[in-house]
Design goal:
By secondary structure, this protein is of the alpha/beta class. The protein folds into two domains: 100 residues, Oxidized Rhodanese, domain 1 (3-Layer(aba) Sandwich), CATH 3.40.250.10; 253 residues, Metallo-beta-lactamase, Chain A, CATH 3.60.15. The chain contains 14 helices and 20 strands. The strands form four sheets. A seven-stranded mixed β-sheet has the order 6-7-8-9-10-11-12. The longest helix is centred in the C-terminal third of the chain and has 16 residues. The mean pLDDT is 91.
């Protein structure tokens, strides 16, 4: 019988040179161009629309590699499953749930675990989004920038026997729908965000305050500064355990967050420069910057995590290290390009002023984020 693999398995395979699959993408050409399976390593991929494939199953099968696993994908997993069944080859497998499930797959990677306390980075590879859980086994835990699937975070809470008490958004997201409010409703936890980003919202939240300290077991999380603006007016950085700095979209492991998504490009670019050189520069250079996004999985470390020391970022990143404000602002303004039009609607969803149905919400989230600006 033809086989299949899960999206979790696919995520592991596309990072493993010895198990790297060949991708047979059966979606329409416009869908393929909009977004596709990508990983740290280059993937051999062919796009053959489903109806074309049906007309020449044997001919297409003959062009596929014999000594490499072939993963067939479509939107939901049904059409690709049919093609796999018709080909009936041991090395051709179907991606269960298709791109719909891939879009919401979260891969956890451990940043810290001393047996009691833990810091986990969750990678939504389809959108290059990162979120975090921070907590203590048998006690409490926080979720930072949750996205994609509430149940995945609840499963981690169950595994760690920890109650989700606090949910943080580092900023008002524009590229994906936040689960912060929904998670607070599911868990009874407190949703926290800076008033600078929530003042136009129609949801309940608790305002973050500069210097505020949260404790999970014996591990502290400090609101280092509500005033790390630039990407958004209320962008917030959270320092965890004196080792990690969750910067949201202020700075990434490469580059900075674009400052034009709220319509104030040059003033926000100046704010971003101030954030880097006044707010972040005085912090411990050994802190590891853990952002909410990345540009490419090629930026990841050997263990798969995405992080970079603050000192290295400040000194060596081509954008972050620009020391002259006018030069920085000029570079940012001249390299932005047009933001995706759907980002305006996603911001409205995250403010609670627009409530899309499930299908519309899925459509809004298709494709990788375009929040980063780098050289």
């Amino acid at each position: 019988m033809p086989g299949s693999i899960t999206t979790d398995d696919l995520a592991r395979r596309i990072e493993d040179a010895e198990r790297l699959p060949y991708i047979l993408d059966l979606r329409a050409g416009d869908q393929f161009e909009r977004w596709r399976i990508e990983g740290k390593l280059a993937l051999d991929t062919v796009n053959i629309p489903y109806w074309t494939a049906l007309g020449d199953i044997e001919g297409i099968a003959a062009t596929l590699p014999q000594d490499q696993d072939v993963i067939a994908i479509c939107a939901h997993g049904g059409s690709s499953g049919m093609v796999v069944e018709m080909m009936d080859r041991a090395n051709v497998m179907n991606l269960e749930g298709g791109m719909d499930l891939w879009a919401n797959t979260l891969i956890p990677r451990t940043l810290f675990d001393d047996g009691t306390h833990f810091v986990i980075q969750l990678d939504r590879m389809a959108k290059a989004c990162l979120s975090y859980v921070v907590g203590a086994r048998g006690h409490t835990m926080a979720v930072i920038d949750p996205a994609a699937d509430v149940d995945r975070y609840l499963a981690l809470a169950f595994d760690y026997e920890a109650a989700i008490t606090d949910i943080f958004d580092t900023h008002l997201h524009a590229d994906h729908i936040s689960l912060g409010v929904a998670m607070a409703e599911r868990t009874g936890g407190i949703y926290r965000i800076s008033p600078g980003d929530a003042e136009d919202g129609v949801f309940e939240f608790t305002a973050l305050e500069d210097g505020q300290v949260f404790t999970f077991g014996e591990m502290e999380m400090i609101v280092r500064s509500v005033a790390t603006p630039g990407h958004t007016p209320g962008s917030t950085s959270l320092e965890v355990h004196g080792r990690y700095l969750m910067t949201g979209d202020a700075v990434f492991v490469t580059g900075v967050g674009r400052p034009d998504l709220g319509g104030e490009t040059e003033p926000w670019a100046k704010d971003l420069f101030n954030t880097i050189h006044v707010k972040l520069s005085p912090l411990d250079p050994a802190l590891e910057v853990c952002p909410a996004h990345y540009t490419s999985r090629a930026e990841s470390l050997e263990d798969g995590t995405l992080r970079r020391s603050l000192g290295d970022l400040l000194e060596n990143d081509p954008v972050v290290s620009i020391a002259d404000e006018a030069e920085f602002v000029d570079f940012v303004v001249s390299h932005l390009g047009e933001p995706p039009a759907i980002y305006a609607d996603i911001r409205k969803v995250n403010l609670g002023v627009l409530t899309p149905d499930a299908e519309k919400a899925k459509e809004l989230e298709v494709g990788r984020n375009e929040c980063a600006l780098s050289k």
